[in-house]
Specification:
The chain is of the alpha/beta class. It contains 6 helices and 7 strands. The two termini are about 30 Å apart.
């Protein structure tokens, strides 16, 4: 992986406010997904959370078992400034790939596309490792022409190649409710860790 996508790179992006992926609020596909979740006791991880608009919304929906991780400290500070009561121990500045824990739900929102493509298999493996059996990854993947990012593009066929060895693909379809600038460019994904290895 190129060194420019390390902590210093992302610190610089935040310090220069070069955060075009951040629309200032939760986007509609994830909002609609969260709105239909009924189990408020889910253990949730939001990796590469950035300014954490998804976290903020989840809290308004009475989810409380939420852990946030980002490689850059600034967005975590931004989140803590907005939500002073959020437990500091659940705001982790570190490398997602070194994180340990077990979760019912992992939220994907502009994290996968920020990783160098050489890490996509590693991402799928790590997501599988962090989930309890039956746990899910849910969120949005960009379906765009591949560009030298970040963000890096990709397509449904490629994503299935990375994820099918590790998950049951419950949904991987074009979002019907994307915000206008992203219309037709997003796939909503729900991917479940099998209860048994033979279930894949």
């Amino acid at each position: 992986m190129e060194k420019k996508f390390n902590k210093s790179y992302w610190d610089s992006r935040y310090s220069k406010q070069q955060t075009g992926w951040d629309v200032g609020e939760i986007t509609t596909p994830l909002k609609a997904y969260f709105d239909q979740l009924t189990n408020k006791n889910l253990s949730i991880l939001v990796p590469g959370a950035g300014n954490g608009h998804e976290v903020e919304y989840l809290l308004t929906k009475d989810f409380s078992d939420i852990t946030v991780i980002d490689i850059s400290e600034q967005p975590l500070k931004n989140l803590q400034d907005r939500i002073p009561d959020f437990p500091e121990s659940r705001l982790i500045c570190g490398d997602f790939f070194e994180h340990a824990g077990k979760y019912d739900l992992i939220v994907e929102q502009t994290f996968f596309c920020a990783l160098h493509p050489s890490e996509r298999k590693k991402y799928a493996e790590k997501m599988n490792e962090l989930l309890v059996p039956g746990g899910r990854v849910a969120g949005v993947l960009f379906e765009t022409e591949f560009v030298d990012g970040p963000p890096f593009g990709g397509n449904r066929k490629e994503y299935l190649g990375w994820f099918e060895p590790f998950f049951k693909i419950k949904t991987l379809e074009t979002c019907y409710n994307s915000i206008k600038p992203r219309s037709g460019k997003e796939l909503f994904a729900i991917m479940q860790k099998p209860y048994y290895r033979s279930d894949v």
